[in-house]
Design goal:
Layout: E1 2-3, H1 19-27, E2 35-40, H2 46-64, H3 68-73, H4 77-80, H5 84-97, E3 101-113, E4 118-125, E5 128-129, E6 132-133, E7 138-145, E8 148-159, E9 162-173, E10 176-186, H6 194-206, H7 210-224, E11 230-231, H8 233-242, E12 257-261, E13 264-276, E14 279-287, H9 294-311, H10 315-318, E15 321-327, E16 333-339
Helix pairs in contact: 6-7, 7-8
Length: 344
């Protein structure tokens, strides 16, 4: 099972009214046919809802205790065979989960039928109006989803360290609900919630600083839903709002852009806000042939940082520093942070 983040946010709203027609056309076409269904918590029978809730709470308890091995043993085979991301998530978020109490916010039951994985499975959950989503609805998009019964459980975890969303993807195996995915996301970034980032984005937009506005809108978008492959009424509205400020000279949706730094042109693959302690910095990721040479990567990083500050001078007002990460095709990367006051 894979999830796709690039096309799962509010742009889906513009396809909602055509989804039923698309399903009819698909049945009559030469392509494999699929059936998919979604139920919200109120539509589930008590036994199913309780079983899903019990499993999700158990996985939260194991994660809060840092018991990655027990989670791996409870995972579906495809996840258990490559559990490194889950282990890293649990380790990274452990300080936030220790002593946390979790409550269920939402449950969605997803089912797909057929004989082969669905290349693209879109689940429309809850009630939709003429303008798209309503407060209790959601859209989930998966790629290569095998036939089966699944559940998405959204928990809100509160601890002395703060609030976090704890989301799990479950797959039914007989009478058991096994772990198919786990995601932890803090409610605050650098001490601020999504509404604060939206407010700052609007301020920058009003001043004509569209790059700053875009970076802050993107951060708000990431925070406004607990899962990147989920969209809601709130994320739909935000998507419609920030489309007018998308700059043409930054990488978006996996499409890289060029950055000239002296005689060298670098290929930027991602630019986004990132929190370093209580500071907000700008993260710039770019491609290099080899990131294993630390001295060479450092020199390239400094050159990229200076070029970014020169190309987007407005960011000096929006962030405390710039982080450049040189990444090669083998997965190695090397990062350098310069405070804005040190970028000449």
């Amino acid at each position: 099972m894979k999830v796709k983040a690039g096309d799962t946010l509010p742009r889906l709203r513009h396809r909602l009214l055509g989804s039923a027609l698309a399903a009819v056309l698909l049945v009559g076409s030469a392509y494999p046919t699929f059936s998919q269904n979604c139920q919200t918590a109120t539509e589930l029978d008590d036994a199913t809802r309780n079983a899903i809730t019990k499993a999700a709470q158990r996985y939260f308890d194991l994660a809060s205790k840092g018991d990655a091995e027990a989670l791996r043993q409870s995972a579906i085979p495809s996840l258990a065979s490559d559990f490194s991301r889950i282990e890293a998530t649990i380790k990274d978020r452990q300080p936030d989960l220790v002593g946390a109490q979790a409550g269920v916010k939402s449950i969605f039951s997803l089912e797909t039928e057929g004989t082969a994985p669905m290349p693209r499975a879109e689940f429309y959950c809850g009630v939709f109006g003429k303008n798209g989503q309503t407060p209790g609805s959601a859209v989930f998009t998966f790629t290569d989803l095998p036939p089966g019964k699944y559940a998405v459980v959204l928990l809100e975890a509160t601890s002395p360290a703060g609030r976090n969303s704890f989301s799990s993807i479950l797959q039914q195996d007989g009478t058991a609900w096994k772990l198919g995915g786990l995601y932890v996301k803090p409610a605050l970034v650098a001490g601020h919630d999504s509404d604060w980032f939206i407010g700052r984005a609007r301020d920058y937009k009003a001043k004509g600083q569209l790059h700053n506005a875009w970076f802050y809108y993107m951060q708000a978008r990431e925070m406004i839903t607990p899962l990147s492959f989920m969209s809601t009424q709130a994320s739909d509205k935000l998507y419609d709002e920030f489309q007018s400020v998308q700059p043409p000279d930054i990488p978006v949706d996996g499409t890289p852009t060029d950055l000239a730094a002296g005689t060298i042109t670098y290929k930027l693959t991602r630019i986004r806000l990132v929190s370093v302690g209580n500071d907000l910095d700008l993260l710039v990721r770019y491609e290099v042939a080899d990131a294993s040479n630390a001295d060479q990567a450092y020199q390239s990083n400094v050159a990229v940082i200076k070029a970014v500050a020169a190309k987007y001078p407005e960011v000096r007002e929006a962030v405390a520093g710039v982080v450049a990460r040189a990444a090669d095709a083998s997965g190695r990367d090397y990062g350098t942070l310069l405070a804005m006051k040190d970028i000449k």
